[in-house]
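Input record, target 12 of the design panel.
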């Protein structure tokens, strides 16, 4: 009896998580969602995210490699929502890129704006799946047996677009890289 009770409990937790993610997806789809923008030190935010994921990275036999400017890079944005973007991308990398050992996090700033790249070296996303990875409930064929709602990257895309940013993915045999770009007008230089 305990066995069945634990199965029901786990299924109910998964359903609760799915409902919460679906609610968040719908909320982030609303263009009138209020963003609580503030000046964010993106260099520090990415360092903290990498540190936060050390236990999960170790459990997946992965290590984070950071490539950050030697100075602070600022962005005017909603910190809580941006953290969610990068958590979703990193969780995706942990789930599907663990056999690649490395998780690279790179921050670059140029005349166009701030570009953040998060790359893993696991199996590539099939070319036919690339146009759909940011759609809700979409998961590449090989990933369907893995746990996940198929909402994380759709939520990330919605949040980036609420900040007037861009998000895209490149994937081939050398790895899978997710990019976010925030244009110059959202950058606050100190």
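The sequence produced for target 12 reads:
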């Amino acid at each position: 009896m305990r066995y069945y009770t634990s199965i029901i409990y786990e299924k109910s937790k998964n359903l609760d998580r799915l409902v919460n993610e679906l609610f968040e997806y719908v909320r982030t789809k609303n263009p009138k969602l209020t963003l609580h923008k503030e000046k964010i030190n993106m260099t520090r935010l990415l360092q903290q995210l990498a540190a936060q994921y050390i236990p999960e990275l170790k459990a997946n036999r992965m290590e984070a490699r950071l490539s950050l400017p030697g100075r602070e890079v600022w962005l005017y944005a909603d910190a809580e929502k941006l953290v969610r973007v990068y958590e979703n991308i990193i969780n995706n990398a942990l789930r599907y890129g663990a056999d690649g050992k490395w998780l690279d996090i790179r921050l670059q700033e140029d005349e166009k704006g701030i570009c953040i790249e998060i790359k893993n070296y696991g199996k590539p996303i099939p070319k036919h799946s690339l146009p759909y990875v940011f759609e809700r409930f979409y998961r590449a064929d090989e990933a369907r047996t893995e746990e996940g709602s198929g909402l994380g990257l759709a939520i990330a895309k919605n949040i980036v677009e609420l900040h007037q940013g861009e998000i895209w993915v490149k994937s081939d045999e050398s790895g899978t890289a997710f990019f976010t770009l925030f244009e110059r007008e959202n950058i606050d230089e100190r």
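The chain has a mean pLDDT of 85.
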